[in-house]
Structure of Dihydrofolate reductase family protein:
Amino acid sequence: MSERPYVTLSCAMSIDGYLDSAEPARLAMSNAADLDRVDAVRAHHDAIMVGASTVRRDNPRLLVRDAARRARRLATGRYESPAKVTVTASGELSPDAAFFTTGDGPRIVYCPRERATAVRDRLGDRATVVGLGEDCVTMAALVEHLGAQEGVRSLMVEGGGTVLTQFLSADLVDELHLVVAPFFVGEARAPRVVGPAAYPWTAGRRAHLADTRQIGDVVLLRYALSERFGMLDARESATGAEALAAQAADAEAVTAELP
Ligand SMILES: NC(=O)c1ccc[n+]([C@@H]2O[C@H](COP(=O)([O-])OP(=O)(O)OC[C@H]3O[C@@H](n4cnc5c(N)ncnc54)[C@H](OP(=O)(O)O)[C@@H]3O)[C@@H](O)[C@H]2O)c1
């Protein structure tokens, strides 16, 4: 059995713990410098995942934006941007969503086994559709499949709350990047960063806060949630001097943008 991919959760929330507002237009939580940091983190992962609601609501491209980072990925034998992964039970995904029409990497859709044929018919050659499980897909099975069948060694999960809740409560996360934006949402119908669940970290078993960083008007909290924390940094370093230089350049670029 292959080692399960290194999992990084990354999201931004309001002071009162919401991922978005309930209004039709998406609420921007982050600022430009933090979005650039997220871009650098994306560039270090093999795959990026969001839930199907995020694909429908936000229509994200999920690409590495910075040209130099894309070039470095190509130079080390990777796609310009990570593979894209989503999960759906309903199968309600449009083949014309930016998730499927942008970028050079693979797109993988997980769904319950009995939905797989219908989802394949709907998406055609725009994605690889993988049927896993009966009524819903467990995140443990999804991560296992990504590692063993798709060659994914690192996965960045960007939301939304339904997906974040499942990864965290299943104890599948190696590190959490939580950004706090300087405002309140205060709407009961808005999506929360996570929902009710049995989480491994409680008042009796506190998570390890590995780092904090102010990035303009937001703050980044970096939590170590497994003994493998930091392994991705070490792995990236092991790919050679070029990758090391690239990481340093990314870090300098982000620092330079800070006020
Ligand atoms: N602030 C941030 O950093 C950030 C990041 C990402 C997203 N967001 C926001 O988060 C909101 C969406 O969050 P959300 O919690 O509503 O949705 P979500 O987590 O993006 O997606 C939930 C959907 O994923 C599918 N799904 C989840 N778990 C599944 C499982 N185990 N098996 C099968 N399918 C599964 C289902 O799709 P089907 O309905 O198709 O069955 C479900 O409705 C949006 O407002 C978005 O803007 C914010």
